[in-house]
């Protein structure tokens, strides 16, 4: 585990069995504060399941999830979110008919405990609106403020989802395949946004199939295979690990995850 002492996020013996099928088993993962850890693995390896267990969408059948040293295994998604755990999904979780600014402002208002109505138009200088505007600067979406979220490109939607996580003040951010569907020309900009939220101190756990993105961003790479964690190590060691290479047999380790 790199950066910081105690892990900010930890799974211990985490497992999920559904109808007799072992989806995930014995996953011990420790993520240090401020670390960016990439999660890779062949299709069906259990990456999204791991995210579902960490974020509280699923309850594990074995093991624990610790956030900042606190056992949150039985805590709801909402409790974990209030404790600083935020996530994005493979499919967008934005309000498509609301504007970019409104999506971020709603998240800010929810955190600040204010009205959740988008009809409560902000007063000039309204704290939630001012803060939302800052987050849109951070993710580079100021030119799309009034656009409907549903009209954004995939890349801009991912940026907006990250702005929503910033508005929720998430200190540990789970990104599920942020580059999925993103146009080639938009990848570099999105990579920079992820790099900048990590540089500002947020811990990032990222499932991603684009290996060049993972290798360019991650401090360490966790490899899942058949529901088990093969290794979690610095990219150079992971890419030369024989067990990892054999897990990818039939694909090239440089182009698949
Ligand atoms: N709720 C569920 N019920 C039954 N099986 C499930 C459930 N959720 C996941 N699985 C199975 O668990 C395995 C792991 O799925 P998961 O979506 O976590 O893999 P993944 O590594 O994210 O795959 P991909 O890269 O294709 O997104 C798959 O075989 C999937 O069919």
Automatic annotation (TrEMBL):
Residues 9-251 form the ABC transporter domain. PROSITE patterns: ABC_TRANSPORTER_1, ABC_TRANSPORTER_2. SMART domains: AAA. SUPFAM superfamilies: P-loop containing nucleoside triphosphate hydrolases (SSF52540). GO terms for molecular function: ATP binding. InterPro entries: AAA+_ATPase (IPR003593), ABC_AA/LPS_Transport (IPR051120), ABC_transporter-like_ATP-bd (IPR003439), ABC_transporter-like_CS (IPR017871), P-loop_NTPase (IPR027417). Keywords: ATP-binding, Nucleotide-binding, Transport. This is ABC transporter ATP-binding protein.
